[in-house]
């Protein structure tokens, strides 16, 4: 069975009830969907940066335990190699994006994102964009 790493943007769309992501996650099995520690960091930043901090905190803190959180430590070699390669090619992307993508690669997971343009720059990454598969 495939394992899926949900990118931060997918988590935000899920929280907002967009793209029928609840149906897609149910179809592949919630137990087969994971989030990165970096996604948790980005979601927590989103809380603190919002105009409704307490309301967002409740929503996000209820969301996070739905999925097993994948640590990034075993992804750091891939992160470093990919960041150096992208820098040399002049194709840099955000550090957190590289690290989340590296986590998918290191753990042999499908990266679920709609940030295909950036994350597809990573070597050996498998990507699915579940926002394209849903009715808009």
Average pLDDT over all residues: 95
Number of domains: 1
CATH class bucket: Alpha Beta
Biggest beta sheet summary: 5 strands, parallel
Element pattern in H and E = EHHEHHEHHEHE
CATH architecture: 3-Layer(aba) Sandwich
- How many beta-strand segments? 5
CATH level-3 fold name? Rossmann fold
How many helical elements? 7
**Straight-line distance between termini:** 28 Å
Strands side by side in the biggest sheet? 3-2-1-4-5
Low-confidence stretches: none
State the CATH superfamily name.
Answer: 5'-nuclease
Which structural class matches the secondary elements? Answer: alpha/beta
Indicate the overall shape.
globular
What is the radius of gyration?
Answer: 15 Å
Strand portion, in percent? 5-15%
Helical content, roughly?
A: 40-55%
Give your account of this protein's structure:
- The chain has a 5-stranded parallel β-sheet.
- The radius of gyration is 15 Å and the shape is globular.
- Helix content is 51%, strand content 12%.
- It is an alpha/beta fold and 136 residues long.
- The protein contains 7 helices and 5 strands, in the order E-H-H-E-H-H-E-H-H-E-H-E.
- It has one domain: Rossmann fold (3-Layer(aba) Sandwich), CATH 3.40.50.1010.
- Helix 5 (76-89) packs across helix 6.
- It has helices at residues 8-15, 21-28, 37-49, 53-63, 76-89, 95-106, 116-119; strands at residues 4-6, 33-36, 68-70, 110-112, 126-128.
